[in-house]
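question for whoever is on the cluster today: can someone run the full assembly for these? two chains, 552 residues total. i dont have access anymore since they changed the login thing
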Amino acid sequence: MEDNVIQVEHLTKKFGSFTAVDDITFEVRKGEIFGFLGANGAGKTTAMKMLTGLSFPTSGKGMVAGYDIWTQSELIKKNIGYMSQKFALYSDLTVRDNIGIFGGIYGMKRADVRRRATELMERLGFMSEKDVRVKELPQGWKQKLAFLVAVIHNPRILFLDEPTGGVDPAARRQFWELIYDVVDSGITAFVTTHYMDEAEYCSRISMMVDGRIEALGSPAELKSEFGAGSIADVFDILARGAKRSE
Amino acid sequence: MDSIVVRRLKKSYGRTLPPAVDLQEPFSVRQGELFGIIGPDGAGKTTLFRLLTTLVSPDEGTATVEGLDIVRDYRQLRTITGYMPGRFSLYPDLSVKENLTFFASVFGTDIKTNYHLIGDIYCRLEPFEDRKAGNLSGGMKQKLALCCTLIHSPRVLFLDEPTTGVDPSSRREFWETLARLKDTGMTIVVSTAYMDEADRCDRVAMMKSGRFLVTDSPAAIRGDFGRQLLAVRSDEMFRLLQDLRKMPQVDRCYTFGDTHHVVLNDGCKSAPEGIGRILEEEYGHKGVSVRVQPATLEDCYMNVGG
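^ ran it for u. tokens below:
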């Protein structure tokens, strides 16, 4: 339990008669890259909203970053980072001011923001761009900055919701090296993706079908369990059993 | 017979900015061809689509689509092309059916006339006909957008990253639909960030900084790779990536699913066994496997234009 940064049991979310998330139980271990896979409409987004403190489950219980999803959702929000493909930055402000604002939102002291910002900017190669307005940055750099602000408060878990959607093969790989880098520094990553080659980069992955977690394990374990040559094949085998048409 | 003919085409969005599209070499797309465009963000893919669909005018040069000039004949041209932009652009407050009816009526047709083109996609939407488009899931929005793009039976179809955010099974279905449309003789130009999709095109253009770097069939592009490529694994994949990059024999190394792909330096004759032995003996890797890897389109992409 100590070593799990996410632990949920029988988590369920219903919208009227529709069960979006159906009794899922799983844990995410500290320091791993956890891939959260599933078809469109399988319930990934609904599950992530419960894990990030944005919505309450209908039933079930869970701890995220050491806090209870029922009673401590505000503390969860302070201790996680979140980035999606549609990230939001202040385009008229400089790189440094963006970092300052997000650090402030997380309640960090100015001196701490400055120290952490310098550390991250050096690590991600941002120092020469720190006074550039965000709107003047190329798209790849904006994405890198969005990643930086998502970890500015040194969260215990970083949630990445399809961070590489629509991104070209070279930029996708650069982004994954950023993920590896922060995981190396002790942050746990929780990632959704539709790129099955990226699933191979995860420590463990879960596959959601019709609101349930139908498979969970390391990529190698899942391939051997399903007698499949690749994670894409595992996905196909499971997706064929889906009843929901989204 | 050519469907799209470009001799030269240039478009800038500001004097100080480099041109978004700057095609200096002629190119054409044949009627009934499935033509893919790949390239990094900012390469000019979307601007090229907007030029060819008459939504922006070129600064220099011009092009024809089905014999119609993109500047002079824009009105006529709009009736025979279908454009599905990368961003969802249907009416979120209209229902599924209302959206489709609207787009059909704009083009002076109705759903029944061209139902054969959309039937296999639309049947999946029919149970949700009365739902507002804004309340559909990502995959359903994309299916509806394609239906609205096809409802006037266009002769040329432009699809800007149609499968972004779409799961692997739905992507495959989408491409099966494209294959069927191609069989009806429709010309299709599609951009994508997925190299497995680019591989399904008749020809692919790799675009960067407003230009086409390479235009050829996927097989020809793969065949022209011309470098020694290896697929390498060990029990510690992240350290392996860093170690491979330190080796003098290695030009480039990048992750590739459950292996790393390694491009060897030209003139480096190291056999796979040699690389494997160095990884074991000098870097202490265990569970090492090294094999010669035929280049995929993704490898070609990773190695074109830096």
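summary bc i know u wont read the tokens: Residues 255 and 285 of chain B are 17 Å apart (CA to CA). Chain B touches chain A through 34 residues (CB under 8 Å).
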